[in-house]
Amino acid sequence: MATPSDETPKTPVTEPIQTAPPATAAPKKLRPTRISGTWIAVLVAIVVLIFLLVFILQNGGNATIYFLWGEASLPLGVALLFAAIGGAVLVAVVGAARILQLRRQAKRLTGRPSTSSPARRES
Predict the structure, then answer these.
(1) Is there a domain that residue 12 lies in?
(2) In terms of pLDDT, which residue wins out, 121 or 64?
(3) Hey, which of 22, 76, 81, 101 would disulfide with 59, CB 3.0 to 4.6 Å?
(4) Mean pLDDT of all residues in 17-34
(5) What span, in angstroms and rounded, lies between the C-alpha atoms of 51 and 77?
(6) CA–CA separation, 111 vs 121, rounded Å?
């Protein structure tokens, strides 16, 4: 006597069983945080400081610096570092003066203090 199970062919199942449809939406890209930006800035600053240290150590010969009525003898690398710091301070002072000027102008035009993200008035 033949049973129904004897009549079906004994072939192995080769396809996996799908329980859920595949996801079609792409995964969301995470936005960078302020902390990650800070870490990147710290790493860049470390690399710049290493290059600066190498520059100063390689330019250790003394140079006589004359400024106004003064005279000083410094290692060349240190003298150039002071010159770069002086230039950066000058740029920062001019930039800060311009920012203050623009804030005062914005305050005068709007009649309210200016902020980085203006608050919306509710009507």
Answers:
(1) no
(2) 64
(3) 76
(4) 66
(5) 12
(6) 13
